Predict the 3D structure of the following.
Amino acid sequence: MERAWRHAKKPLLRIGKHGAGETHGNALKELLAAHTVAKVKVNGIFYGNLTETFFAIRKLAEKKEAPKGIELLQARQCDRILLIGMPGTRVDIEFGRFPPKAEPKANDAAKPSKTRRETRAIARNQSRKKKKLNRRQYLKKLAKKGNPIARARIAQAKKQKLRRQQQQQQQQQLAP
């Protein structure tokens, strides 16, 4: 039953504090025809409890020519959400025929998913390769465009280069 609950992502029908009207019944009929199961959020307990609310909605849907025997699959009192299904859905769930198992895509099975940072790094490297720029040239180009991070990195690289040169000069003076 939990898989069916997770299959219906969010409540597609809401019932307010004034109760359900004929439009709610028609909407439930159309939702079940399209999705097999539907979550219904009950904002106000107009009919007493969630079960009585379900029977009221089912009666309205059957008036609008919905199939007889719409099922209450699950009611979560803490969330005030009903999971309602077409006739026979409970049996399909028990035998594992519903919800349908998602078939993995051919590409998804072979490759692990990448984080946003990884995809950005790949795109950055690809744009660098197209123009055949090394890292220093790429940073200079970004700095010319006004990128403050690139400017800071270039300044930092210059400072490091000066330090290295000074250290080398000191070592040469001490070595002879």
Observations:
- The mean pLDDT is 85.
- The two ends are 83 Å apart (CA to CA).
- Strands lie at 13-15, 37-42, 71-76, 81-85.
- Residues 58 and 70 are 7 Å apart (CA to CA).
